[in-house]
Specification:
One of its GO terms (biological process) is proteolysis. The protein is of the alpha/beta class. It has helices at residues 2-16, 47-59, 81-88, 129-137, 165-170, 201-213, 224-238, and strands spanning 24-30, 71-75, 99-105, 108-109, 112-113, 127-128, 143-149, 178-183, 193-194, 199-200, 221-223, 246-250, 256-259. The protein has a domain at 23-191: Rossmann fold. The strands form 4 sheets. A 6-stranded mixed sheet has the order 2-1-3-7-8-12, with helices on both faces. The radius of gyration is 18 Å and the shape is globular.
């Protein structure tokens, strides 16, 4: 009986301290101004701003005070297909105790995210979900987070060949690993920007939650379960049911995402 109690305590402690041990490596992308678009034909307003605010969070105490050398921030014209692909190689530096994070804010398609230099009608310049999953697969990190504030981002959960999306990006990690996709909308829904919030609705509430609003039990940390319970109903409410965030993957409900 005592042995099982100690084992449970150890597992609980490992979940709660997952973000405090090891290093964080993050690739943060936000594209409002596309090379081939104008605001009248599809440019966004706040995606680059949202990306900078995500970096600000990562550099803060709740976000783990991640060093600048472990963050790749690409906004607007910096966020070309080639630059994003190069930035994703950062994940190869992560060890078994580390975590890797991809944040993308911009346009999305059913199987891809759209980089700055997309050529209309040319799929070779799309950032495919398959390529993103490959970058995660090549990382040894125990915790892998993909956060996307993009239309149709829920399609990221679709399986690759015979593997589920979660299996695709956790196969190279050890037992007990966490992989989570925090996606702004279902695979058939748009992701909405808000002038009133001055940002993407999903990212706005995501950051509010991570900075403490989601800490339901006031234990000075925000778990992925708490974050989902905070973000999802607010996004659905603000968008009048047109946008439902998707939290998907293989992870413990007690996975801590911020420490207050």
């Amino acid at each position: 009986m005592v042995t099982y109690w100690l084992l449970g305590l150890c597992l609980w402690y490992a979940e709660k301290t997952a973000g405090k041990t090891g290093q964080t490596y993050a690739v943060v992308v936000g594209i409002s101004d596309y090379q081939a678009l104008s605001y009248a034909t599809g440019d966004l307003r706040f995606a680059d701003r949202d990306a900078r605010q995500v970096v600000q969070f990562l550099r803060s105490k709740p976000g783990g005070q991640v060093g600048a050398s472990h963050i790749r921030l690409l906004t607007n014209r910096q966020a070309t297909w080639a630059n994003i692909q190069q930035a994703l190689t950062l994940f190869r530096e992560a060890g078994a105790d580390d975590r890797v994070i991809l944040y993308f804010s911009g346009h999305g398609l059913p199987d891809s995210f759209v980089p700055y230099d997309v050529i209309p009608g040319n799929r070779s310049r799309l950032l495919t979900h398959r390529a993103i999953k490959a970058a995660f697969y090549e990382s040894k990190a125990q915790t892998k987070l993909c956060i996307a504030d993009a239309c149709l981002s829920g399609s990221m959960t679709q399986p690759t060949k015979q593997r589920s999306a979660a299996q695709t990006i956790t196969t190279n990690a050890g037992a007990g690993s966490n992989v989570a996709m925090l996606l702004a909308s279902r695979s058939t829904e748009n992701a909405v920007e808000s002038r009133r919030l001055a940002g993407g609705t999903f990212t706005y509430y995501l950051l509010k939650g991570l900075n403490g609003r989601a800490d339901r039990n006031h234990d000075k940390m925000v778990t992925i379960r708490e974050l989902h319970r905070y973000v999802s109903p607010l996004v659905r409410q603000i968008t009048r049911g047109k946008q439902a965030p998707v939290f998907y993957g293989r992870f413990s409900d007690n996975l801590a995402l911020s420490y207050l």
